[in-house]
Amino acid sequence: MIFSSPRFFVFLAAVLAVLALPLRHETKKRILFVASCVFYAAWDYRYLALLLLVSVIDYYCAARIAGADDPRARSRWVTFSVVSNLGILGYFKYYNFVVGNLNGLVAWTGVSLPVLSILLPAGISFYTFKSMSYTIDVYRREIEPCGSLMDYATFVTFFPELIAGPIVRASIFLPQMTRRIGPTADRFAVGSSLFLLGLTKKVVIADRLAAPVDQVFARPALFSAPTLWLAAVGYSLQIYCDFSGYSDMAIGTAKMIGYDLPENFNMPYSAGNIGEFWRRWHMTLSAWLRDYVYIPLGGNRKGEGRRYVNLMLTMLLGGLWHGANWNFVMWGGLHGSALAAHAWYRTKAGNRLRIPSPVAWLMTLLFVVLCWIPFRSPTFAATAQFFRGMFTARRGAPWAPDAVFIALALVVPAHLVGLWLASAVRGERTETRAGSGEPALQRVMRAASARLCEDPISSWSLRLGTRTVLGSFVVALWVLLVILSGETHSTPFIYFQF
Q1: To which H or E segment does residue 462 belong?
Q2: Are 8 and 2 contacting, i.e. CB atoms less than 8 angstroms apart?
Q3: Cα separation, 146 vs 246, whole angstroms
């Protein structure tokens, strides 16, 4: 079920209605588990057993780790967990990729390994990383093992973030399982506001950009350099609005149910350097790679040279995580090189040669946009063709760029408003000279019966209100915009393929 589809709206309304009933807390947790299984089975019921198998393996591995005093036994159980998860992920996601490359290398021998017809299970990259981190955290003695298999299975299968994140850790989710489950007026208002924001990003911007962007990336040799540049910008907006829109809807749905999920995007295109970009983009994956790959490799504790190598290896793995394609590895390598170069610059030249903030922002944005080209292109040849065309003066096939300009007209002001709201959350409000000196933001939000909500997990969000005429008008106008401007067909989210 796609979050932007009527089918999901009916499903969510039914789940919230049942969870709102005066039932025992344990009963509601079981209902939530069953609802999550139904949600996943709607994609392909055959792989529900695989999802539950991962839950059972890691639950029992963590229990054995916690109960063992012998360091070697603990090590064996965590190794079994990691190998099991990576083995499952490797078979379904990378088997044909590895076999295809091996067959190419040994083609001269006349021997070839069989290529299998494997359907990638929905969300496998996300739920294996999520579940694997649990056993590692128990092994590190950072958390206690979960005492209930059903509770742990509910954590792994939790439907709002099951398919495409955020990658939620057990240390964040499991302590919340003692909370009251079910919608309250306040949590529903906050959650539905977040959901509406994500829905707008998805159907009004990302889905509108999909067709024209796909047209150019399918045959880049047909189009002129300006068209290719606009298509690259269009894809940068599309993937951001698509993925951050999913995250907003996932976090909003979880809030309506009664749980807080971690923030996953924080206006990444406003980043002033590549390190900051990765602290703002897909934040839960960035943190996962840092804590379970970069730091165990040695991080920055073993000298500068080793630090650069660790950054590169981490981002190469991050690229490969996105898909079994050398273009993803290339994308990861580019970002790894940029992170290493930025680390070198800060260490060697940062104090002597300061790049002005606007220039640093523009350089970062340009690099990120250009890197999306190999990420989106299917092959090295298509990537080279796209880059070659961007710097070649030639006529091209007709292409309508309206969707890109409309997206820019929506995303740029939205980023500015987001930065304004973020500064308000940090208490950096700008006082106005008019009237009583009350901050302008405060007056506008009070008139619209809206307010900023904060929590230590999901950061902050804007809660829309309908208690005033202006507030009701804003909400009604926003919903009308989504209905009239959104795509009528629900398209799968880009990250579902990962």
Answers
A1: strand 459-463
A2: yes
A3: 28
Short-list 265, 233, 241, CA closest to 372 = 233
**If you average pLDDT over residues 241-254, what whole number do you get?**
93
331-385 pLDDT per residue, tens: 999 999 999 999 988 888 766 778 888 999 999 999 999 999 999 999 999 999 9
Which structure tokens are listed for 241? 């609005």
pLDDT digits (tens, 9 = 90+) for 40-71: 998 888 899 999 999 999 999 999 999 888 99
Q: 459's torsion region: left (phi>0), alpha (psi -120 to 50) or beta?
A: left
Nearest to 427 by CA among 460, 449, 450: 460
Pick the catalytic residue: 282, 322, 335, 342? 322
Euclidean distance between CA atoms 495 and 498, whole angstroms: 5
Q: Indicate the residue type of 447.
A: A
Q: Which two tokens stand for residue 293?
A: 């790959």
Query: Number of helices and strands (H, E) in the chain?
Result: 20, 2
Q: Is 322 a catalytic residue?
A: yes
| pTM as predicted | 0.91
The whole-angstrom separation of Cα 158 and Cα 40 is 10
